[in-house]
Fold these 4 entries.
Entry 1:
Amino acid sequence: MVVTVNKIIPFSTVDGPGNRTAIFLQGCNMNCLYCHNPETRSKCVHCGTCVSSCPTGALSFEGQKVVYNSTKCIHCDRCINVCPHDSSPKTLDMTPEQVWQKVENQIPFIRGITVSGGECTLYPEFLTELFTLAQAHGLSTLIDSNGTLDFEQYPDLLAVTDGVMLDIKARNSEEHKRVTGWDNSLVLKNARFLASKAKLCEVRTVVSPDLFDAEQTIIQTGDMLSGFLSLRPIRYKLISYRPIGVRQQYKDTLKIPAREQMEYYARLLAAKGFKDIIII
Amino acid sequence: MTNFPVYLGQLDMLLEPFIQNVDDATAKKLLRGFLVHVDSTILDSFSHANIGPMPTRTGRLLLEVEAELMQAVPNLTLKYEEGVTDDDFAIQAVKTALRSAKPSFANHRMFRQELGENYVIASCYNGLPLGGGSYTLCRLILGNIAKRASGIEDFKTNQLPYVMDIMARYMDARIRFEVEESGFFENNFLAKEGFISRNRFTAMFGLVGLAECVNILLEKEGRPGRFGHDEYATELGESIIRQIYEFNEKHHNPYCEITGGHFLLHAQVGISEDKNISPSTRIPIGEEPDEMIDHLMVINHFHKYFPSGTGDIFPMDITVHQNPEYVLDIVKGSFRKELRYLSFYEKNSDVIRITGYLVKRSEIEKLKSGQNVLHDTTALGMGAAQNGKVLDRKVR
């Protein structure tokens, strides 16, 4: 079983508690306007637009395929910026065992791994295999997800998953469609299901004024989940929209929230019993 | 002997009796007064205090106060041992370190196994017996010795042994003078009042510039690769350090009884005038590996040889404030991998660790613009910022 890996960050500060190796899988089913890593959305179609833009010759054609030479790469990201398909020429096809070999190097410096994307739950069998390996070596396992996999149908995956970090991008279905292109009923079902099984460790909402009603989303999500906090503390991460990495066509239409606004949302959640609230 | 108090004491134990009967707020006020006094009267950031490994109320409050004060003096080390130092205490230490570039983390398990429980961390990061000290510190500038060599073979069989022999005999002569002729141990108040004892003294056999040494030798051999990025370079570096270690194990000095009659190896942090000489066994600033894991897996070859001190420094990204456990995980992993001593600060922190001492960036700016500053180490920091590129360390 092989998946396409966008990148592996050996030491990540921001993908869950403590030091974790973060694995980013390629491909996403949503199309969030504020996506800050759009190069993870699609698979490479080998169109070659990036080849001529590479300043160091790290990209070339081998037959019909674009190949990437990591030793020549200076990580200037020009290939990603010119890609017309929201993809990257630097991805690698890897098995769970191959990914595990990359994770193993970081023992004993890490406490766990986090798989993100793209949308990593597009590949539940891969996650199950990788997490089984990780847990056997004493590492904790987290999923970073948009909530479009019906977790209830994947008990084997859940058994080897220590926690899910779930995006709730909007509470109202119409707004959710506007932000992501998807209805959110499955996302909300997952939030309730995972919380009831003590598998929900974090909820995130990206806030951009006028894009959706952030206040209602935060209030209603808080109400929905506050009853589960006694089973397991749930971190609520309030993320201020930032234009870094965002596609040009959306960048200028989206607004950055004021710090005071974010702090107001945090107070709403604190009043509902959330103890671990982070504004970033 | 330097006239600076390079060791201030085990502050948590020392101050615990004074705050026993007061509430936290009063205790913090007292500690704040004490620390401000230290910063204003000891004008040199090589003065070093210790806390840990056991968590104490004084230790915790002291860390909280330091996080607020953000002072360059005193230098501070947390003796850390997984399972002995609890996570809450260590996390407070991380939070304080991100704001004030201290405490550093010392691998208590390694130090106590080598020096016994009664050791201290003094000056930069020097592990030495409590109530003792170092008679002297001399250093090999390894890069300069490599320049004299025709290749690796000549370096190892002729040039390095030649300089090591001279340095050891020079240190012997200095120590003999101090003990037999100077009268220091008979007359200095520290000895008279029982703070130090001659028989707890040893000496530090120092070295700098391993990176340049390895790179010069590789070049002379016509081999590709650079220190920090190449397995062969790491192996060569370790074989050089091992040779120096073995030389020291064979050399005997009659006045270093406390350390078995031998000097202790010391990875010296350099002096502010050093140019193109990397401190200790560090990877040169500007050449650090892209990934911190690769950095750690190079330096872990070297820390174990230096009981009288070595250390590496990492400026951290601002995201770490939200996840101090990240730093603690790195400390835990590193200490399992025989790393000895690690320092961290947040990349925008005003207080930063230059090499082994602390300086405020704002004070360097004041000095640059011709204003007076309080600490002499600010002048050293200004030199090191210019010559040693310490403001350009890779952020982790």
Entry 2:
Amino acid sequence: MDILPYLLGGLGNGALYSLLALGFVLVYRATSVVNFAIGEFLLVGAYLTYTLSLRLPLSLALLLALPLAFLFGLLVERGFVRPLLGRNVVAVIMATIGLAAALDGGVLLVWGADLKYFPTGLPELGFGLGGLYLSSRAVWSFLLGAPTALFLLWLLQKSRYGVLVRAISESEVAALALGIPTRRLLALVWGLSGALATLAGAMVAVAGGLGPNLVLMGLKVFPVAILGGLDSVGGAVVAGLFLGVIEALSQRFLEPLLPGFTEAVPFLLVFLVLLVRPYGLFGQREIERV
Amino acid sequence: MLFVENLKIVYQGVILALQGVSLRVGEKEAVALLGPNGAGKSSLVRAVAGLLPKFEGRVLDGHIRFSNQDTTHAPAERVSALGLTTVLEGRPLFRHLTPVENLMAAGHRLPARELKEGIEEVFTRFPRLYERRKEQSGYLSGGEQQMLLLAMALLTRPRLLVVDEPSLGLAPKLVEEVMRTLDELRREKGLSLLLVEQNARAALGLVERVYVLEQGRVVFEGSREEAQKDQDVMEFYLGKEVVGFRQAKRYRRRKRWV
């Protein structure tokens, strides 16, 4: 049986999707802004990590890139989101589309269009067990992804900060009336989103090289987030893992029959799920008291 | 404690909501602000709470002073930190959050220990909330929601409580209960209170002074006793006929105010 390695590899990939989707969903949930620049967050983060890794060991570069990416998220909030605060959400969404285009160009200008490879990799953690081999990349994705996702879930659901973010996401005016520092908290959420995207981007880039088309991975965030329910953090994690596995399986079994079909599978799946559950798998329903 | 002087407010640059309103609330004093729909009561509430920008409104003229500081253009965060807490109309709690989480959000400035004690205190006072502490607050009854809102307001540790239309959409019995609770809490904690109401009868029971707002202007100001003696207030807000309908000449008296 050769399914198991695909399954595990898929889970590893899925963990990265989860990370990326987490950042996306957090921002959507807290600010109702659909961040179309999420792919660019990932791209910039990956290039930042790459640049740092030219001088530093990779683990250190990654550690340093995360706070920088956090700062980058803060800057985006400050420069593009806050000036539009109080306007229609659509205005902010359009701004993120513009930002995406600008960042795409900016990355090309600074780093060029050629494919780059990290000078060093992460320590080799792949291992074989019986007839089964688990790639180092999958192990690392899981090692970094799982605790991060769990920590974020805890942060949002149980911690005091999480309660505040959820409160703001529901009614900013009510939160303001209670004196909750909404602006500061929302900025932190954007920073967090930047850091998460960077983590995911760096992991992919370390394994497969880094070029401007890494931005396409940002597209994956939409099926993942929508499948999980746009505003559900837990849903993003589950849906990320799920789609990772589905993709791997489709790669193995459907690709030989229908070349290129794998690209469409996540979107097809979203379509089917939405037919049955319009709020996604774990999305929040509107409360109506009759 | 709270001084509002000659306040003018416009929305979207053109709609004049308040045209020079002055009002004060003293230390530990309870004041009612009465008036019909659209008189500008909620605009005043938003202005003192620092929430006008959220409603595309802005102070055109005049001053707001709270606790000896100019808060005319202060953001909501600062006003709240100074000790002025607003309970907006329409029961603005966080519906998807449980009562416990709502209370946690409200007590965001308290240290963990004090927050926990505060929440326990709330639950002893409102056993109904304790029973439903793990449900989504959106499913609580109207009366329970109003109680939760009052409890949340207390956890911000205010010195002045501004409450906008707590009676709205509640059955008369519940209105009575909410007002009684508000009165008890205020006396217990030594708070000042600005109670904004359409329901004059319910409000008059717990205040010392009364303002009546109409079309963006203060048309009556006085103690509760004076309000109860005033023919216009009695007639228009308490529905008591002081003189016969024919002699009353409503239209002329209204005109005098505008």
Entry 3:
Amino acid sequence: MKLSEFIKKSNFEIVSEGDNTDTELSKVFCCDLLSIVMSKNPANSVWITVMGNMNSVAVCVLTEGGCIVLAEDISPDEVMLQKAKQQGVTVLKSSLPVFDTGLIAHNILNA
Amino acid sequence: MLKLYYDLHIHSCLSPCGNDDMLPSNIVGMAALKGLDVIALTDHNSCKNCQAVMELAKEYGITAIAGMELTTSEEVHVVCLFPSLEKAMAFDSFIHKKLPQIKNDEKIFGKQQICDKDDTITGTEEFLLINATEINFDEVFDVVSEFGGIMIPAHIDKSANSLISNLGFIPPDSRFACAEVKHTGFLDKLTKQHGYLKNCKIISDSDAHYIENINEPVHYIYSETKEIPDILNALKQKSDSDEF
């Protein structure tokens, strides 16, 4: 499924829409420790995290992730927002916990 | 007792997220211009620009402490300050071995530049410095003490990379005597939630990654002298004359 379609179906709030909405998404990945994400985040993934800082954007770019979904109603800080826009990374937001957010994303990708 | 205006959490161009203008002359020059008495250079997981900043600070007549912002395995940030450059560099070597061997991608994370006191770039750090080290939070006190240093959990009120946000609480067997907050306005609330802080010296630093963000001479500590060991001692002791 393309990221653009995922955004529509998920109803997650769009924090920043990147330039990669044509990306074909691969799978859901949940983790907050960036050092693990850096080595494990699958390419084109929907990465669910509570880490709303600029390093998350950098790690998403490095791992070629599909998008970031901030769970638990976490808001990105100002620097993250700037970086996401600069780097063209799509950042979404959900008020649900990490698991529930991941489950929704998983169900959409596997419908 | 001397009243010293401080900023003990400043990044240089060695931190990937630190602006390339964070060169020793700019950092020390700005600190002197603002009227700070004591600063500390605390790059992520490295002390390799401390020598340049300390040498320059001496010329400007301000005290610069060699420090590091250590990232624990839980990605909690801890400011570590050392009594001498030698101790800091020994700690630097020790920590460098505890970093994951992931190379920095400058285009994504930013440059990690090492420089001398004339701002000449003398090298770059190869491994990405913002990564988590193998040191657990509960080990930090002993590890830093071995090198004569003190630990100060960084920006504990922030929602990312702080002791409280990442662990969720202050471990009751903690031994640190000083903690750093970003915004002092929430201190009462924070202390009510986390009783451990009642017995802590509280400081507030800039965590500057850009030159303009270095603290104004607002926050102060009292110390016997401007010598580093006395300042570290002052940071370990809560007193009635504390700002917070």
Entry 4:
Amino acid sequence: MVYEFMHWLAQRDWAMDFAGSAWFYPAVLATHLCCIAAFGGMILVTNLRLLGWGLTDFSISDVVGKLRPWKRLGAVIMLTAGFLLGGSEADKYYPNPYFWTKMALLILIAIHGLAFRPSVYLNTAALDRAPVPPARAKLAAALSLILWIGVVCMGRLIGYYEGPVSAKQAAPASSSQQVASGIIPQ
Amino acid sequence: MLFLQGAPPTNPVSAVLNSAEWIFPTCEIFHIVGFGIAIGTIAVVDLSLLGLGFKQKAATRLRKDTALWTLTALVVVLTAGFVLFLTSPLHYLYNSAFQLKMTTLFLAIIFNYTVHRKVASSEIVSPGAGILVGAASLALWLTVVASGLFIAFVPEAGGY
């Protein structure tokens, strides 16, 4: 079912035009990358503040509140560009384990946001009143950093997956595999 | 720089760097996460100079609080980037997107540690100057990122 949908998506006229365009595809990819530069720092800065590692001149409410609308804007641009990039080559991405790991991490990020919303992100005034930053705020920040760095790593590695067939052809079997398969006599 | 001459993998440095397939993607990941931190922290200051998000007055403290992160990440980005460059120096030197990237990178670094530092560090910023400097900084850094991406998309020149 998932494969049928992804195959159908990649066969749309817009998807085929987009994937084959000389300038539009790289321009959208550049936009996707620019979002890391423009909005990634906001995620870092928020988490540094929650950990108490930086921006201690500012209150947690200030950092979380002031950056929230800009992070939302960043997410909208990022997801739109990402949908164009992924959707236009959906059938190629279907067997790609890095793509699915990235999607799983994005789902975990959504769950993370919802899970820590009441206790951390919508509770900043109470966090500011606490004498030391509460453990749950630090946990939220640490998890957020790990998840986002994971997303960036997986995003880059998507481009290195060569597919189930060509990967086998490209990678020569290790000598132990060759021994096991009888190519090299024991 | 004689060792850089000759198309890869004829120079020994490139040969070593291309000998294991994990080296290039690993450097790319450090490069990308690094610029996310380096440019990302600069962008937070830029947006504040533009009066977006934080108030313009907050730029001074924002820059002070993020300066060490920016510098550390910049060192990581430049180091990883230099290793990526060394995998195939001539391929990059003749690439027009790479040339644009190096030019804007040079300007962006100079700008960041002269004009940007001065304007973001002075308590009395005229709103106009702040907006101009924030916009110029964002434009320079985003051009660096975008032209970096285009390195892989411009037509190959000179057969390298």
